[in-house]
Amino acid sequence: MTPSFQDIAEHVVRDYRKRKRELPWRNCGDAYSIWISEIMLQQTRIAAVIPYYQRWLARFPTVESLAAAELDDVLAHWSGLGYYSRARNIHACAKELVANYGARLPQSAKELRALPGIGPYTAGAISSIAYGQQEALVDGNVARLLSRVFAIDADIKSSAAMKELWRLCAELVPARAPGDFNQGLMELGSLVCTPQNPKCSSCALRSVCQAFTSNRVEQFPIVKKRIRDSDKTLLESHALFLRRRGKILLAHRQAKGLYGGLWELPQSCARAQLGALTGMSLRFPRATSLVHEQVLSHRRLKIHVWPTAASGSLRPTLGSSYQDMRWHAIESLAELGMSAATRAILKRSAELE
Ligand code: SF4
Fold it and tell me: How many angstroms separate the alpha carbon of residue 22 from the centre of ligand 1?
């Protein structure tokens, strides 16, 4: 049986209006409050978020008050929630809203996605919940729920499955009450269609759920076994952060191998080798102020970044790792091919001042 999209949307909205939990950011219709709550709720439980959210709104009640605040103050109000890039992005975004958007969050998901720290999920949430725009969203709860309703026959974390989920959500989201529909999907996924022992007997979608009606609930979502992060090989290195007259020193990887052909901060497995690598005399601080950690599909990276003072001219020793090393103007960095790790480090370079 192929469920009708309209039926699904109606079931979801009706169920949400019956079942929804009262939360401080619900029913306010204020884009700023919804934005802050959505960012805080990423990776964090609702109960933990509520006191942070209330303190935040008391201290920064508007976009303008947030944009005018010192970053230290903003981080202090985030302290304990973790993933601090979220707070830095919120602050940067508030400044951009004041500078270019009249201190208001734009209505369209497309414009929202162009702002710092706002991805497709958050853009869909703000646009549909605050502004009533017919925009879709997919989070982990929605993905699990719909993988069961539509019996999606692909690894739920794969890009093919995600593409299909976004397509389905875009077709499902109704023109009327898109915010209630999106919140209803998330609420059903989180309270009813739980990872273990979903409560099918009290689910509003059981008559249209393909997994339930074909008695295959246990088979969905399909999750391919992954290597545990802790079992992945750790690649630890030391990177040089060196700036001179508006330029930054970058090394160009050999074409083959990990990050082949990309530019990065000059790196070595030992800090002591960085001087020989550049041919300059280097003076390091006592401790790094930045350690970048990242999990790749088969490896873990840990990069200690050293803001360094240097004397002498650049005389690089190129070899198996690098084909070139040179100074690049900071404003031209966007044009260079770089790994996500290097971009992430450069984005955080303010921490190295
Ligand atoms: S019927 Fe069961 S499996 Fe299907 S959506 Fe509802 S809770 Fe999930």
Answer: 23
Residue 297 has pLDDT above 80, yes or no: no
Architecture of domain 229-352: Alpha-Beta Complex (3.90)
Q: Is 203 in the pocket of ligand 1 (CB under 6 A)?
A: yes
Left, alpha or beta for 22 (phi > 0: left; psi -120 to 50: alpha)? Answer: beta
Largest interatomic CA distance in the chain: 74
Among the CATH numbers 3.40.50.2300, 1.10.340.30, 3.40.50.720, 1.10.10.10, which is that of 5-138+167-190? 1.10.340.30
* Ligand 1 midpoint to CA 211 (Å): 7
5-138+167-190 and 229-352 in the same fold: no
Q: Is the CB of 198 under 6 A from ligand 1?
A: yes
3-class SS of residue 322 = strand
Mean pLDDT of all residues belonging to the chain: 91
Q: What is the pLDDT of residues 319-328, one digit of tens each?
A: 878 999 999 9
Catalytic residue status for 38? yes
**What type of residue sits at position 233?**
T
